[in-house]
């Protein structure tokens, strides 16, 4: 975060939709964006949590709109865009952050569970991206930022469907980026490692119990990376440094890194 503020694009009055804003990384990102002067549209299923977050933002003088949304519903996503346009007339940035985790061996995963992960983590962001593209294309400017995962670069044992959803989203993002670049729209991919949030609570607990230190970053730190990616229109961000290292190591020595991951998983989950 060493870069001086004046060299970065301003967020003042930028309209930013954040999905999965009721918790963890999305909540921290929404708060930071509002602090920087953005008009933040808060989207997730839990209306009560969104209303509380909206109150916190407004009490600090920020501008926001809470739109309870299930990203697995085409009507819900259509309503999210419509409410955003009704209130703020435009949309400048979409942060596709809503996601669910699934830690289970592939062989034990039921059809409904595997479909549900893909529906939220892949089709959800795709649906939201498709909803905002016409508005962004019409004004020749915009940014779609997809929150992926280290597991979207390195397949992770006992998380095959989660990994698959993030790999799929990475492929979509890379292709979409090429399509939208000529229209002035940036497509960014953010690959976090472990972040301390409700989603990572169970794996972090299992790791601690097995005597493994995973050194998660805070949701606030993740939010700083995301906000900087928006302000610099960065196309790719991976954090923390350990995740960058793992991805590079996997590129050169995939077997070694995969063996290391499955050994750690075995110690965590037996
Ligand atoms: N925590 C980590 O270590 C980590 C690491 C790498 C990547 N990530 C990614 O970061 C993103 C945020 O995760 P997090 O750690 O902040 O998890 P979290 O605290 O569990 O938050 C997940 C958010 O997604 C929302 N959500 C889930 N299903 C949804 C749906 N169908 N429609 C709309 N919103 C939905 C939840 O809100 P509602 O329940 O209110 O809908 C919640 O706000 C995810 O994409 C995750 O894969 C996390």
Instruction: Tell me the number of helical segments per DSSP (H or I, 4 or more residues long).
Output: 9
Order of helices and strands: EHEHEHEHEHEEHEHEHH
Mean pLDDT: 95
Question: How would a textbook summarize the main sheet?
Answer: 7 strands, parallel
Return the structural class.
alpha/beta
Could you tell me the CATH topology label. Rossmann fold
Q: In the CATH hierarchy, what is the superfamily? A: NAD(P)-binding Rossmann-like Domain
The CATH C-level class name? Alpha Beta
Distance between the termini: 39 Å
Beta-strand share of residues: 15-25%
User: Which molecules other than protein and nucleic acid are bound?
Assistant: NADP nicotinamide-adenine-dinucleotide phosphate
Unreliable parts: none
Radius of gyration over alpha carbons?
18 Å
Q: Can you count the beta strands?
A: 9
Q: Which architecture name does CATH use?
A: 3-Layer(aba) Sandwich
**Biggest sheet, spatial arrangement of strands:** 3-2-1-4-5-6-9
Quaternary organisation:
single chain
Shape: globular
How many structural domains can be distinguished in the coordinates? 1
Helix content: 40-55%
Write up what this structure looks like.
By secondary structure, this protein is of the alpha/beta class. The protein has nine helices and nine strands. Strand 1 (15-19), helix 1 and strand 2 (39-44) form a beta-alpha-beta unit. The model has no long low-confidence stretch (mean pLDDT 95). The structure holds NADP nicotinamide-adenine-dinucleotide phosphate (NAP).
């Amino acid at each position: 975060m060493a870069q001086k503020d004046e060299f970065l694009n301003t967020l003042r009055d930028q309209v930013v939709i954040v999905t999965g804003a009721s918790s963890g990384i999305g909540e921290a990102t929404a708060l930071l964006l509002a602090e920087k002067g953005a008009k933040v549209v808060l989207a997730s299923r839990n209306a009560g949590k969104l209303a509380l977050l909206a109150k916190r933002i407004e009490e600090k003088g920020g501008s926001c709109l809470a739109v309870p949304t299930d990203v697995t519903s085409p009507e819900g996503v259509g309503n999210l865009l419509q409410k955003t346009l009704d209130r703020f007339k435009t949309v400048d940035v979409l942060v596709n952050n809503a996601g669910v985790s699934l830690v289970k061996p592939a062989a034990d995963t039921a059809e409904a569970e595997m479909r549900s992960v893909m529906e939220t983590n892949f089709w959800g962001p795709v649906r939201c991206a498709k909803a905002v593209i016409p508005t962004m294309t019409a004004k020749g400017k915009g940014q779609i930022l997809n929150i992926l995962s280290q597991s979207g670069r390195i397949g992770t044992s006992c998380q095959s469907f989660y990994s698959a959803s993030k790999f799929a989203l990475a492929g979509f993002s890379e292709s979409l980026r090429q399509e939208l670049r000529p229209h002035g729209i940036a497509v960014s991919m953010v690959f976090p490692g472990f972040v301390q949030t409700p989603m990572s609570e169970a794996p972090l607990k299992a790791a601690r119990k097995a005597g493994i230190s995973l050194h998660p970053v805070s949701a606030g730190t993740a939010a700083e990376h995301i906000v900087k990616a928006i302000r610099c229109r960065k196309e790719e961000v991976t954090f923390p440094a350990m995740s960058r290292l793992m991805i590079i190591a996997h590129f050169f020595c995939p077997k070694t890194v995969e063996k290391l991951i499955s050994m750690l998983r075995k110690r965590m989950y037996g």
